[in-house]
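Q: Nephrin, please. Structure only.
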Amino acid sequence: MENPEKDRGRRRRRAVVPVGATGRGPGLALRLPIRTSLLLLGLLMTGLAQVPVPASAPRGFWALPENLTVVEGAAAELWCGVSAPGSTVQWAKDGLLLGPDPRIPSFPRYRLQGDPTKGEFHLHIEACDLSDDAGYECQVSRSETGPELVSPRVILSILVPPKVLQLTPEAGSTVTWVAGQEYLVSCVSGDAKPATDITFLLSGQTISDISANVNEGSQEKLFTTEATARVTPQSSDNGQLLVCEGSSPALDTPIKASITMNVLFPPGPPVIEWPGLDEGHARAGQNLELLCMARGGNPLATLQWLKNGQPVSTAWGTEHTQAVARSMLVMIVRPEDHGARLSCEAYNSVSTGIQERGVTLQVTFPPSAITILGSASQSENKNVTLSCITKSSRPRVLLRWWLGWRQLLSTEETVIDGLHGGYISMSNLTFLARREDNGLTLTCEAFSEAFTKETFKKSLALNVKYPAQKLWIEGPPEGQRLRAGTRVRLVCLAIGGNPDPSLTWYKDSRTVTEPRPPQEPRRVQLGNLEKSGSTFSRELVLITGPSDNQAKFTCKAGQLSASTQLVVQFPPTNVTILANASALRPGDALNLTCVSVSSNPPVNLSWDKEGERLEGVAATPRSAPFKGSAAARSVLLRMSSRDHGHRVTCRAHSTELRETVSAFYRLNVLYPPEFLGEQVLMVTAVEQGEALLPVSVSANPAPEAFNWTFRGYRLSPAGGPRHRILSGGALQLWNVTRADDGLYQLHCQNSEGTAEALVRLDVHYIVCTVDANPILPEMFNWERLVRIQPLGEEEEDQSLDDMEKISKGSTGRLRIHHAKLTQAGAYQCIVDNGVAPPARGLVRLVVRFAPHVEHPSPLTKVAAAGDSTSSATLHCRARGVPNIVFTWTKNGVPLDLQDPRYTEHTYHQSGVHSSLLTIANVSAAQDYALFTCTATNPLGSDHTDIQLVSISRPDPPLGLKVMSMTPYSVGLEWKPGFDGGLPQSFQVRYEALGTPGFLYMNVLPPQATTFTLTGLQPSTRYRVWLLASNALGDSGIADKGSQVSVTTPGLDQPSGEPDYQLPTEQPAGPSRLPLLPVLFAVGGLLLLSNASCVGGFLWQRRLKRLAEGISEKTEAGSEEDRVRNEYEESQWTGDRDTRSSMVSTTDVEPYYHSMRDFSPQLPPTLEEVSYPRGVTGLKEENMAFPGHVYDELERLYAPSGAWGPLYDEVPMGSCDLYWPEDRYEDARGIYDQVAGDLDPMEPDALPFELRGQLV
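A: Structure for Nephrin:
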């Protein structure tokens, strides 16, 4: 059945209950008892239910249930006492019968409690909950003992306490509010029965302005309460709690929820603590510290200092425990701070305006400076006027004057307004300057009562001027004669004077200074002004010279002056020779005039030529400087070729001074070539040996060409396989044959004319045979032919002790065990059977050895312009047998010789091999690199490095040394350094120690490496430097290697001439042979004479073809000629070939030999050319021409015909002055075969180097 109470509850409407009222439940909606009455009623009903019913209870019950109120979770018990035992009793809940079973199975928390026999049927409910809130009846069924009974209906009311309060803002949080502003706070209780009563507490005080609403809960019979309060926090509420408190009959104590209030409020006004009693008063320079404080405020105050409205400090600190903010202003008070307003401002984020406290500065400051205007320097007995002015001060200061310890009275005082509210004080003073006051201190003093502990002063030293009293000069007596070069000391002295007198020296009205030319001794030394007491002095020391003669030396000090005059004797200042002509020829008349510019006393002039006295004529002299005397004298000379190079000397002699000054004029006479008396007209030579046809010729200028003709044909100036024309014109021949006998005509010419000479060559020869009778056991003898060694090399060992000599019948052998390189060379077999003359035969031993590259030192350098238009040639030379193969690398990378920019040629000459690498279009970026040349043959390899660089100035010469010495000359020799890629020349710079200045002399010819320095004086020490120069500049003075010091011998000492002559060529070929070799026996010679005709024809035809192909290339391998410099002699010296400018000069070293033993190197052989290795059809086994044995050597030597023409075909006439250069003829038909009596296939027709046995 329906529960009418539940229906009424659903029909309830939401009602607003005033604070303090509460709802009593659905059945009591219209009743509003107070909360206290409800609580007392519940307790009363609970008590009544627990006691037996009184006697007035309905019949059949001795105890009846009563209305009961319990808190949720507690136990409840409703009483029911039945008078009729044995009756069936059960309870009904809202009309629902619970059953008579005491355990009441359907409701586990329900049970009947009591003794049924006593009629106790109490209903006990454990852990009551809201479902137990209902009406209950105790019902008794009919029984034998009693009727059916029903107790009155009672109500069990369950109280549900609120579990939680929901606070907005969130409980437990801190809220930030601004003081004075209103805020809403809401508090909602959880489900409760009856509705929760809500109260708000602010800082422990109840808030009255609240509103509350009671709403239905989440379940029936449950209610929620929502209360809202209006809160206006104050600064005192900062940090306090706002509490929401919920109370209910079901609670023993109210439940609470709270928030913490962070109330923001502005700080209090700032306070400035001023040090001292007088607020705002400060002194300039004071370190002022001002403290500003502001109390309270949340947050604490932000402080800043302002000066005249401009912030000066924004630093502050806070102390939260004391709720105070502090800011310290530290400043140095300055005068300009006077009148400034300092203020401290305090504010925070909730301040409605800025709070300020200010103070105005009153600054006291002294004058920062005192200035005295006017000069404290005045002549004696004159007035001194000065003014003293102070800078601005506050308060004003007073001024007073002191001179020493004496106070002076001012003439006028003035005060005007100054800066920063201060005042400027001025005082004028005029007084008479006296000599006794000189040096006293003049002081202006400022003082004031405000600055009692300080004194402000400005002082000057009084300077009273007065003149010197006396001035004089101490020195040599006037009129005393002084020799030039004498040291003279002049002293100027003065007494007294203020200021110190400035002593100034004058020479003929010009101020004397102290010049200091570089590298020259000082002639004038001017001392400093010195003081001794009241005496002042200044010294002038001078080395007298011609300009000091009759000069007036004056010393001045202000208006005072003193003078002295010197008389200086001096030799001629300059002796000059004037000539009426420069170009002289034999027969010309030369007029020379000698002029002595100035001397004191006068001098006598005289002439001589190479020691021979000449008579001169006096000439009219010019005016002489330095107040001296001039002189002139002339001489007339008739020129001849013998006068060339002679010196004509003029001597100026002073009898009184006993001194002579000389000057000379060197005669330069142009004349055609003239053969000297020592010219050799006949030269003797031995067949197969060498011959030198010397030339002794004198000419000026040097001969332009030397041309030799033989039997009407001109010898090639470029040389041939068996001849060479040396730079001095001498003709050298080697491998001489009897066909070379005859007259050789020499023709030399220069711009002045020509000269000719005939030189006869007489060739001695013998016939060698191979048969002998009788044949003796000891008729064979061997000896080794040693070539002439270059100077400095060790001589070869001629001993044959380590070789075995064997003879058997008509055969002799020389057995060499373990052949060494030092044993290579020519050997001669001498056969003597007692029948004169002995027969001789030659053989050459060739020893194989690994390559050895010539390593120049320092590193070889080759220069070329890197403009992509120039070319460079790198020369690599090595020795080795068999032939050598050359390879090139650039910076370690193999060079691609297929590149058209690179061209490589290989040449062979005996055991010497050369590789020429030509680089076309040299580029600085690509080709300035390190090139490496490697020489390789089957026995090993060797290499050298060549650096390709840009053209530059030359390197300094090396190894300068003295080769000869006389009292008047020194012979020098050196090694050229790297020429920088351009033709270089040399210059000698020398000085005589103790004599100022340097002398220079150019070396001619420019490329010479020897030089004779003439014009020196005996017994004199000289220092000599050698410089190299090219178009880009000179090498400079090197530390070592390019300078020497020498002392020339006296006239009574022997000269240091060398005992040998310096040659101009370097011998490289084999030494000449003393005798013609023995070729074969008589029978073999006859057999060879037939075969030679055929072989000679084939030989000449092939060599003719070869000569046409290689004639242009032979010039590349020609050796450079070295010449000897004869600068001071009339002998001609030729120019050195300059084609080596692209190759390091260290590649060629000078050697020195007797001209008698001179032997040149053979021209190189082109590697590309092959030569015949034999003549076919000949049966003779001992053929002299090499066979397969010489496979590795025949390319080392070329037959003479392979080298092009030796002479041209143009016969020379007696009137031919110029030689055609374009026509030459094959030398085989002119030079080697001119006699027609030598078969080309005979052994002697081959070069000696081509004959030999290979080892």
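A: Brief note, in case it's useful. The longest strand covers residues 753-764.
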